[in-house]
Specification:
heterodimer, A: mainly alpha, B: alpha/beta, six-stranded parallel β-sheet, 9 helices, 13% strand
């Protein structure tokens, strides 16, 4: 029944453009608490979307479980998701969930953080490999500069670098000088791209809402 | 009243409209070459012919923050790719690390299917939320690249360090990765880890290179004009400061 419940394209477009223009005007003209009021509504919508996201994740893995595609992984995910959801939900009711039992903070500290630290370790190896591969895959002056800067920065942060003063030089010249200047240049480009994207949405050229 | 904001936005919009009409009279798009986009077009065509899948990762940029613009670009490119590749045996797959972006990805795909009269073929699972934290998102995307016969990964959105996990999975799955992010550390990582990295504002040019819509091209010309004005002002103020210091 709900499958066919959808906004017609022009209606969605009009709502999106009107909301965007109103929000833009709240940043330019003093319109009282209108911006906060609209943002409050949107934040509630975003929270609902978070739940829909969890439902989507659950649906995908239930489907995988049903089809027998890597069922162990999907089952582990669904069990972990279910336990975390129930524990976090019940924690709000002290009469239902004793404080002596491990709660969501325990899950975060003892399960999620070690797993994410492990992924961070994998990331370090992955990045080292990627940097080493860069010279062979894209042999140009920028790749050489990238790898050289990486090596100088790494050596500058070792005991040797700190004792010889290389670390200080690297921090002053590379990190605070070259890197921050480059980052500002990139950020100007990103800011202009952000404005252009916003204006295209406001003009109805880009309609990332199925309109 | 913040008049500076109004002037900048009005000037930008005016330039976009001006370049739109100017470009209608001129022949050619007059855009600089970004080879990554030409290779992406090639990869999309090959994927359609080979019966392999294109994976579009929109990242986890909060749509309520400035990072949302990067996600909007990702959605725009998802739409362009879906319009070309949705009829293939393995239609494009979108992943997001945010509930709202997941809904928008599904909506974008559904709209593309409707436009192609393929509504019956659309599946909700083509737009997925794989995780809601940076690493859980990356970890959720990794197996998907192996399991779904992905030949091309397009990472367009807001990504941090987790992007390296996705590109490494692409590398092991022997799929090509084109990637851009609005995050500075993320860009450094993608420069080393992606096959085709997009630096700075290159990511925002995707619509103009893939879709060739006149207003996308006009917005790029407006961006270039404002950038040169900004460069001129920076140099002018720097010289002004220098002269003032010398006097």
């Amino acid at each position: 029944m709900f499958r066919n419940l959808k906004f017609r394209a022009p209606v969605a477009t009009i709502i999106a453009i009107a909301s965007g223009i109103i929000m833009l005007f709240t940043y330019i003209f003093p319109l009282g608490g209108l911006r906060a009021f609209i943002l409050d509504i949107v934040v509630i919508g975003a929270a609902a979307a978070l739940l829909i996201g969890v439902a989507n994740l659950t649906g995908v893995h239930l489907d995988k479980l049903r089809k027998g595609e890597k069922p162990v992984n999907s089952a582990a995910l669904l069990i972990a998701l279910g336990i975390t959801f129930v524990v976090t939900l019940l924690q709000g009711y002290t009469n239902l969930y004793p404080a002596s039992l491990p709660g969501s903070q325990w899950i975060l500290t003892n399960i999620q953080m070690p797993v994410e630290s492990t992924l961070m370790g994998i990331l370090a190896i992955t990045l080292t490999y990627a940097a080493a591969r860069l010279i062979t895959q894209r042999p140009n002056i920028f790749s050489v500069l990238f790898v050289l800067t990486l090596l100088v920065t790494l050596i500058g942060n070792t005991q040797f670098g700190l004792e010889t003063g290389l670390g200080q030089t690297v921090r002053n010249f590379v990190s605070h000088g070259l890197a921050s200047a480059g980052a500002r240049g990139i950020l100007i480009g990103v800011a202009l791209g952000t404005i252009a994207t916003g204006l295209r949405v406001l003009m109805g050229i880009d309609r990332p809402y199925g309109g | 009243m913040n008049l500076t904001n109004l002037v900048v936005i009005a000037a930008f919009a005016g330039l976009m409209v001006g370049f739109y009409f100017l470009n209608l009279r001129r022949e050619g798009r007059r855009l600089r070459d970004i080879p990554s986009y030409y290779r992406l077009r090639g990869s999309v065509e090959v994927a359609v012919e080979d019966g392999t899948r294109i994976h579009v990762a929109i990242g986890r940029g909060d749509i309520l923050s400035p990072h949302g613009a990067a996600a909007l670009v990702g959605l725009s490119m998802l739409q362009e790719i879906a319009m070309v590749a949705s009829e293939s045996d393995h239609p494009p797959l979108a992943t997001a690390g945010d509930g709202l972006l997941g809904i928008l990805a599904q909506d974008t795909l559904r709209a593309s299917y409707n436009a192609l009269n393929l509504s019956a073929s659309y599946e909700q699972s083509l737009g997925r939320v794989t995780g809601l934290t940076p690493f859980s998102y990356g970890a959720g995307v990794m197996p998907l690249i192996f399991d779904e016969a992905v030949s091309t990964n397009l990472l367009i959105g807001s990504f941090g360090t987790e992007a390296a996990l996705i590109t490494s999975a692409g590398e092991r799955g022997q799929s090509r990765t084109l990637a851009g992010t609005d995050n500075i550390p993320g860009q450094a990582i993608l420069y080393a880890a992606a096959h085709e990295p997009l630096i700075g504002e290159e990511m925002y040019a995707g619509g103009a290179y893939l879709g060739e819509k006149p207003m996308h091209v006009a917005s790029l010309h407006a961006q270039d004009t404002i950038r040169w004005i900004a460069i001129g002002l920076i140099v002018l103020f720097a010289l002004g400061g220098l002269v003032q210091g010398l006097l």
